[in-house]
Amino acid sequence: SIQVYILRYDPRTAVTDLGTNAVPNTFRIADFGCSTGPNTFIAVQNIIDSVELKFQHECPSAIEFQVFFNDHSDNDFNTLFKSLPQSRSYYAAGVPGSFYSSLFPKSSLHFVHSSYTLHWLSKVPKVDGVEGSIQTRRFVNEVMEAYAAQFNNDFQTFLNTRAQELVPGGLAALVMFSVPDGIPLVNNAAGSFYNTFGSCLVELTKMGILSKEKMYNPTPKELEGIIQRNGNFTIERMEKMTNPKQQVLCSASDLAVAMRAVYEGLVKEHFGDEFVDKIFNHFATKAEENISIIGQRVQDSMMDLFILLKRI
């Protein structure tokens, strides 16, 4: 999966921001949008290792860890549980439900993690006159404003519910897709991806292009503004994650793998299993035709943002 190499922030730097007062006997971690692994297991184990290192002097006796894996109720939790590492040092539980709703008792969590999930909106905003577009923003101001407003509402809801569930001083580590401030979607990599993918579906299926999807990539300024207005967290860190492979993710086949990692479920839902391979193979062909434009925009405008928040 493409997420394996972009999941590269170091949780040890995040855990140093945890206070050392009243070290808990049970340290509770929640991963929101866990899917079926293995990336969630890697992230969780890194967090646990970092917490143990942080508290080894303050807490002579071993801390017990409880990890909650959250995703929508239609997630394949059976596969997730079957894939749990046998050597894990934590108690595991699944928590089905939308992370835009309250899922845990008040002040019950110490560390929250979410990786590449918060760009998915809770619903598709309604915008008149722009039907039939795969593009989230479609380069139209009305659509941009509608999706930005929906993301603002959803992210505020996420922050408010997590603020209720985290203990004071608890941390939220978020890894998100982002786009640079001031670069129109038509000029960045996401715009090129969606245009190519949309034309691919039109040519291949003759079914019209995919309906608007509930996805939005915010800018750093948008995120900072929403968090500040929310008022429940301080921003301990917000930084662009370095990704050396981003500079070489420019072949048509690599781009097709990247798109498939994100959109396979969506394509399968709309067109059925029998069309999945054909669609993404055709996307690779279309991407090859536009590789010079897409490849440069990947290098110029793809961003993975790491955000560390502390509950006030």
Throw out a few tags for this protein:
globular; Rossmann fold; 7-stranded mixed β-sheet; 19% strand; single chain; 312 residues; disordered N terminus; alpha/beta
Secondary-structure topology with pairs:
Blueprint: H1 3-6, H2 11-15, E1 26-32, H3 39-55, E2 64-71, H4 77-82, E3 91-96, E4 109-115, H5 141-165, E5 166-178, H6 189-205, H7 220-230, E6 233-240, H8 252-271, H9 273-289, H10 291-301, E7 303-311
Parallel strand pairs: 1-2, 1-4, 2-3, 4-5
Antiparallel strand pairs: 5-7, 6-7
Helix pairs in contact: 5-7, 6-9, 6-10, 8-9
CATH superfamily: Vaccinia Virus protein VP39
Question: What topology, given as strand order, has the largest sheet?
Answer: 3-2-1-4-5-7-6
User: Segments where pLDDT lies below 50 for 5+ residues?
Assistant: 1-8, 134-139, 207-211
In the CATH scheme, what's the topology name?
Answer: Rossmann fold
Mean pLDDT equals 79
Quickly count the helices.
10
For the secondary structure, the number of strands is: 7
The CATH class label is Alpha Beta
Helix percentage: 40-55%
Describe the global form.
globular
* Beta strand %: 15-25%
Broad structural category = alpha/beta
- End-to-end separation: 35 Å
Give the helices and strands as they follow along the chain: HHEHEHEEHEHHEHHHE
Protein name: S-adenosylmethionine-dependent methyltransferase
Pfam family, one: Methyltransf_7
Keywords: Magnesium, Metal-binding, Methyltransferase, Transferase
Organism: Citrus sinensis (Sweet orange)
